[in-house]
Amino acid sequence: MPRPGRNTYSDQKPPYSYISLTAMAIQSCPEKMLPLSEIYKFIMDRFPYYRENTQRWQNSLRHNLSFNDCFIKIPRRPDQPGKGSFWALHPNCGDMFENGSFLRRRKRFKVGGAQAADPLAPSKPQDAAAHYLQQQAKLRLSALHAAAHLPQMPGGYNLSPVSQPSGFKHPFAIENIIAREYKMPGGLAAFSASGYPLHNQLAPAWPHMYGSGVMDTSAPLSMAGGDYSAYGMPLKSICHSAQTLPVIPMPIKPSLASVPGLPQSLSPTSPQTATGQSSPAAPGEALPAAVLQSAVAVH
DNA sequence: GCGTGTTTATAGCCTG
DNA sequence: CAGGCTATAAACACGC
Q1: How far is CA A167 from the centre of its chain?
Q2: Is the distance between the Cβ of A101 and the closest atom of strand B smaller than 7 Å?
Q3: Distance from residue A252 (CA) to nucleotide B16 (C1'), in Å?
Q4: Which pLDDT belongs to residue A30?
Q5: Which SUPFAM superfamilies does the entry link to (predicted)?
Q6: Which pick of A150, A168, A180, A283 has the fewest CB atoms within 10 Å?
Q7: A108 strand C contact, CB < 7 Å
């Protein structure tokens, strides 16, 4: 694996692992989840190296998604046709990379292991799913809140469940990599002070639904033939959306799909006791507003 | 058939 | 050096 280093990478292999690249793609999206095809697109857009031998690396990437517990699968709603599910980061994988660096993981994320990044974050898969939904609710509400009180909370983007709380951010940390999108002069047009696309604030939506041409409104890849600038992220805005899909999806890792009681786990009375509940909700069922409000109360 | 997702196997590199 | 992490390949299943 090439080391990050002095010169440029140009079309050479980036220093990021597939896990890192996938995490970047997911994190780059305000909704914190992407379908496989969008993950592909994200990587190919940013790293010319991955525009070739797609069969090889995409197979590896799929392997990583399935093999690593740090990725959770979220099904599409029945009324959202399309291939495959969405992929999100496990809420507990925030400390997966040392200092948040994407160069190499210090430890392999394992469901059930001891993760200290978020004491509220559960370790069991089913709990993780519930936690994920809770965080999603927070995210959406914070977006709405930001829309109502602009300008404010530039750190709104960092409400992600996998963001490190504060303090040192490694140069390769996802915040530092992705944040470039929001800091570059040319890339601010679509974003508010909260870091969300404005239309997203008003109508939280699923990022994968944006039209095919939307992503290419900015300049062509600034890195083409050049480098990845400082660790690599060009300045394209991603995950624009023009549609509304207000419903929070249901995570379904194999162990999650059969676990009853996920929605109940989000109730105000038992936010962290997701196991052992009953009466599963149908996939795609919308969360009641009360659940969202409780999520904010937690926040 | 194709895209997606899972699983197994193997090899190389890195870290403790 | 052992174990962990990562990359790669391949086989297979499933749904559209």
Answers
A1: 21
A2: no
A3: 36
A4: 87
A5: Winged helix' DNA-binding domain
A6: A168
A7: yes
Nearest residue, CA→C1' of B14: A104
Q: Which helix (H) or strand (E) holds A178?
A: helix A174-178
Domain ranges of chain A: 18-99
Nucleic strand B near CB of residue A55 (< 7 Å):
no
Distance measured from the CA of protein residue A67 to the C1' of nucleotide B10, in angstroms: 16
Give the HSE-up count for residue A187: Cα atoms under 13 Å, Cβ half-sphere: 22
Say yes or no: domain A18-99 is CATH 3.30.70.890: no
Q: Quote the pLDDT of residue A131.
A: 63
Residue at minimal CA–C1' distance from C14? A84
Q: What is the block-wise mean pLDDT of chain A (299 residues), using blocks of 10 residues? A: 42 82 88 90 88 89 89 79 84 60 60 46 53 62 49 37 45 56 38 35 35 37 40 37 40 43 38 36 36 38
A67 CA vs C8 C1’ separation (Å): 14
**Is the CB atom of residue A37 positioned under 7 angstroms from any atom of strand B?**
yes
Is the pTM of the predicted complex or chain greater than 0.85? no
Tokens linked to A216 = 């290419």
What is the pLDDT, as a whole number, of residue A36? 92
Query: Residues A135-138: contacts with CB within 8 Å, 24+ apart?
Result: A135/A32, A135/A91, A135/A159, A135/A160, A135/A161, A136/A31, A136/A32, A136/A248, A137/A248, A137/A266, A137/A287, A137/A291, A137/A292, A137/A295, A137/A296, A138/A295, A138/A296, A138/A298, A138/A299
